[in-house]
Specification:
This protein is mainly alpha-helical. Helix content is 75%, strand content 0%.
Length: 997
């Protein structure tokens, strides 16, 4: 097989920079080029925006903006359809070029149209109006282009790290374009800025074209089909009540956000029009304002946003903007109405400054905090409908709200103009501005209330999603999560839901669990009381002591009472243990007696401990299973070197009760009794103790890794037991454990690699996948696929050289069947490897279609993969999956491994050279065929396989040796004299007698 080639490590400073940016080495270059393309295009678009707004305000005034809003609502949907059509009919490389030309070339036409002022002023106004409308179109096309390119360049896990950096190109473009605008106005004039904007947009499109050529594997040469149309729906689209309650305020949140954006923009541009009658002055102000805001946005995005969301929670951060707008708008109105002394400003100036401040905070918080939390708001929605709902919210609801807002603004302006016809224009516009600022305050309050309503539905849906394993705790608002748990515990509902909430609380914040659980202990059912006390005992705290004492006063069940007593004593180190002696009486329930004995053994005096030890011995030697289990729990309080521990532990490990042995295994892990760790490993071999043994090993954490690694690497152990060891390591889930599992992927083959892949993929929160990508990198994962395809080429060659017309017989048929089975195993592993890079649902959809007997379904599966995969071996893999003949598959694999025909005997010997990559059954079939056809096998392969972990392989080698070389067989029989498999041992004895006679 070809040697593995992993990407070289970057330089030290480069590695530090990538680490600072939270990027992996293979993502750095792609992110840089994408950032450059996005920044260049953003600069051009922002120059265009500042120029267009200035021209529009000069020609139409702010009153013309509502018409733009209404037209944009229709245009946005149309451009989405156009872009989708281009994707479906042209390769993405051509789409990028077409969109770049479509964005830049019309600007040259608009620039010529602005020169028609001397011919016909109407044409100039029409040009300005269409240019303002086209500005919105440019933004839509740029968003589509950049998002599609990013989604092609990065998989779903990479884009979470890369896209925030790429998106900050807009903020950098804000700064560059803003501060350069006054200089451009002085050098080339306002209208000629359109030429530079067109040039920058072309450069941005060129950067995207360069990217698509440099990374050809990410951009197919065929049109990209919509995967949503190709993938069947495997989950019901019916949403439950909680989901409906969440989706409605979700729509409201985004719609109100768009409404406020338009209201602020309308009033902001209206004030600029009134304050600056000259277009150059408007453009200059827009540039400087944009540059200043851009700097503030960059600082906020890099140093404030993530920390604010992390510390305050998603919804507090979401309310910053509406609350800020409502407070600022309210003070603007108050200052305007009251004219507080000390201000030398008139109403118009107060309104102008107030609106500028409103616009500043709207821009600053909207493109930092709000933009940062939007993905979180869609997180609780089930993955199968998340994309659909997000499209409806941001692709349909927001454009429609833009149009409706435009209609509303026109109606309001018309109504105010008709109502106050007698007022001078300046006073009427001031009054109109006050009304619109009041509308901003009103809608800001509603927006804040919608965020509160959204939170109520968000938290309940979040808990349901977590219970079903759809989300990880690292990607949610934990404060909202805990609030949902409190609400669930306070409601008289399903006890099963409340138990799930306590389990979730234990996972997310075991140290703070007492704050939520302690005040509710008395009202809980006995089952919940026990569960809550077990959680609280992990971190005893004297602060919650009064709640536990009140629980004891209500005379709970004995098992709860025992836990409560334990909590009281563990949370108060200063208490004396003499008051516990009455609980050692034989008439007291064993649960309470055992607890009291354990506490005295932990903190009692030398004189008090003998009686507690006697109680403990009575429990450990009791004939009742429950007493022995309680005694073992109390035994945890004694040191491993104590006489009682050394005497009873070996005996209890042989106890006839599996439940007693399970409790003992957990006690060994809890007490970290190193001499008895071997018992934990032995517990994996028996069904009755397997679950307890695995839990105990997981509880040991990284301390169990040497044991588990040794067990998993031992090829002589049963595959199922090795799999249990790997699974336990995955459940430990530490960085070191996942690193050990990831490192073994490269050196494992067959069933072991398949098991490792399945285990790593199932680690919650995609931490297993992240560990593989961190240690192997994308290039390492691609190497895994290449290894599998190289093996597939060898298997196809063997099937062709051992065809039925060349080799006949039962053993040959068995070997051919085994080879076909391994080929399917290879493809299964390839699909598992794909799940490390691509969404699970996409790969699963492809698998289900390819497993069908329908040609239409198979074609559908291949189409899904064609639009998903971006690995170098993509075309080879797709051709192999087309279910063609072995010869055709071998031809498809020729670019990886050219086929060289061999004689059947040479091909068999070649297979034995690849024995590490073959299944045990295939290896046994090779020796049976060699015996049947009387082919010679190399001495090395014979000796190695004679010590193979699988007994039927050793048996096949013995049968082959008996016929091929009886003398060699006699010499090698002593190696297998004490074989652990009784069938092989019996065969050895039989051969000794046969060959010696």
């Amino acid at each position: 097989m070809k040697s593995l080639k992993i990407a070289k490590s970057p330089t030290d400073w480069g590695a530090k920079l990538l680490n600072l940016l939270n990027l992996r080495p293979e993502e750095g270059e792609r992110t840089l080029f994408m950032f450059i393309a996005y920044t260049l295009t953003s600069i051009g678009l922002l120059w265009l925006e500042q120029t267009t707004i200035a021209l529009f305000l000069d020609g139409f005034g702010a009153e013309g903006l509502p018409l733009i809003y209404m037209a944009s609502a229709l245009m946005g949907s149309g451009l989405g359809v156009l872009y989708s059509w281009l994707q479906n009919n042209f390769p993405l490389k051509k789409v990028f070029v077409i969109i770049a030309l479509l964005m830049s070339m019309p600007l040259l036409v608009f620039r010529l149209g602005l020169e028609l002022a001397n011919i016909n002023g109407f044409f100039v106004l029409a040009t300005v109006f269409i240019l303002r409308l086209w500005m919105d179109a440019e933004e839509i096309l740029n968003d589509l282009n950049s998002q599609v390119a990013a989604n092609q360049l990065f998989n779903i896990r990479e884009i979470k790290r890369a896209y925030p950096i790429i998106a900050s190109g807009l903020l950098l473009g804000d700064v560059i374009s803003g501060f350069s605008m006054p200089l451009l106005l002085w050098l080339i004039g306002l209208k000629n800025v359109l030429f530079l904007a067109s040039l920058m947009i072309l450069l941005g499109g060129g950067a995207l074209l360069y990217l698509s050529n440099r990374y050809k594997q990410f951009f197919p040469d065929t049109p990209v089909r919509e995967l949503d149309d190709l993938q069947p729906t495997y989950a019901s689209r019916r949403t439950n009540t909680s989901l409906r309650k969440y989706v409605i305020p979700l729509f409201a949140f985004f719609i109100l956000g768009e409404v406020l954006y338009l209201l602020v923009e309308f009033q902001y541009l209206g004030e600029l029009e009134r304050a600056y009658p000259n277009t150059d002055e408007i453009a200059g102000f827009l540039g400087l304002f944009s540059g200043f805001v851009g700097i503030c946005e960059l600082i906020t995005q890099w140093f404030v946003s993530s920390r604010a969301v992390e510390r305050l929670g998603v919804f507090i951060a979401a309310m910053f903007l509406p609350v800020s707008l409502s407070i600022l708008g309210f003070f603007t109105i108050v200052l305007d109405l009251t004219k507080i002394g000390g201000f030398e400003l008139d109403s118009a100036q107060i309104l102008f400054i107030g609106v500028i401040v409103l616009k500043f905070f709207d821009e600053l918080l909207r493109y930092t905090l709000i933009a940062g939390i939007e993905p979180f708001l869609f997180q609780p929605i089930p993955a199968e409908i998340r994309s659909s709902i997000q499209t409806q919210v941001q692709g349909i609801a927001e454009p429609l709200s833009t149009g409706l807002t435009g209609v509303s603004i026109i109606t309001a302006v018309w109504f105010i103009s008709g109502l106050f016809t007698d007022l001078p224009d300046d006073l009427r516009r001031e009054f109109q501005g006050g009304i619109f600022v009041g509308a901003i305050v009103f809608f800001s309050i509603i927006w804040a209330l919608s965020a509160l309503s959204l939170r109520q539905s968000y938290v309940s849906l979040l808990v349901q999603s977590a219970e079903q394993g759809r989300i990880s705790f690292s990607s949610v608002d934990l404060k909202a999560f805990k609030r949902a748990i409190i609400e669930s515990l306070d409601q008289e509902g399903n006890e099963e839901d409340q138990r799930s909430c306590i389990q979730l609380l234990e996972r997310i914040d075991v140290e703070g669990a007492g704050e939520i659980l302690a005040p509710r202990l008395v009202k809980m059912s006995p089952v919940l009381q026990r569960q809550s006390m077990e959680v609280m005992l992990q971190c005893p705290n004297v602060v919650y002591l009064s709640h536990v004492q009140r629980l004891i006063e209500h005379k709970p069940n004995l098992d709860v009472l025992a836990l409560a007593l334990r909590y009281i004593w563990l949370s108060q180190p200063e208490l004396e243990t003499h008051s516990l002696k009455p609980y050692l009486n034989e008439r007291v329930d064993p649960m309470v007696r055992g607890t009291a004995a354990g506490l005295i053994l932990r903190r009692g005096t030398v004189g008090e401990q003998p009686e507690a030890i006697a109680t403990l011995e009575d429990l450990l030697t009791s004939k009742r299973e429950r007493d022995r289990m309680i005694g073992i729990q109390a035994l945890e309080e004694l040191p491993a070197t104590s006489r009682v521990s050394q005497h009873f532990l070996p005996i209890l490990l042989k106890d006839e009760s599996p439940r007693v042995r399970c409790v003992l295994l957990e006690a060994i892990a809890h007490k970290e009794l190193t001499p008895y760790y071997g018992a934990l490993v032995r517990g994996l071999y028996y069904r009755s103790t397997r679950s307890a043994a695995k839990r105990s090993l997981v509880a040991l954490g990284d301390k169990a890794l040497p044991l588990l690694t040794q067990l998993g690497d031992d090829l002589r152990k049963p595959e199922f037991i090795r799999q249990q060891a790997w699974t336990a390591m995955a459940e430990i889930g530490s960085r070191e454990a996942l690193a050990l599992l990831s490192q073994r992927l490269m050196n494992s083959w067959g069933m072991t690699r398949r098991n490792l892949l399945r285990i790593l993929i199932k680690v919650p929160g995609d931490h297993g996948i992240e560990a593989v990508l961190e240690h192997l990198g994308r290039s390492g994962v691609e190497t895994l696929i290449q290894q599998e395809l190289l093996l597939l080429a060898q298997l196809c060659a063997a099937e062709l050289d051992l065809a039925p017309d060349l080799v006949t017989g039962q053993a040959a048929d068995l070997l051919r069947g085994a080879l076909q089975g391994i080929q399917q195993d290879v493809l299964d592993r390839c699909f598992l490897i794909m799940k490390l890079l691509y969404p699970f649902s996409t790969i699963q959809a492809a698998i289900l279609n390819l497993d069908s007997d329908s040609e239409i379904s198979i074609a559908l599966g291949l189409e899904i993969l064609d639009n998903t995969l971006d690995v170098p071996q993509k075309q080879v893999l797709l051709r192999v999956l087309e279910r063609r003949s072995t010869a055709q598959s071998l031809s498809d694999l020729a670019e990886l491994m050219p086929y060289q025909p061999l004689s059947p005997s040479d091909r068999l010997r070649r297979l034995l050279e690849l024995r590490h990559f073959l299944s045990d059954w295939t290896l046994a079939c090779c020796f049976h065929l060699a015996r049947e056809q009387r082919w010679m096998v190399t001495r090395e392969a014979t000796l190695v396989c004679l010590q193979h972990p699988s007994s039927f392989v050793r048996e096949a080698v013995l049968v082959y040796l008996k016929q091929a070389s009886p003398r060699t067989c006699i010499e090698l029989l002593p190696i297998l004299t004490d074989d652990p498999d009784p069938l092989v041992a019996a065969q050895v004895n039989r051969l000794k007698s046969e060959l010696s006679s």
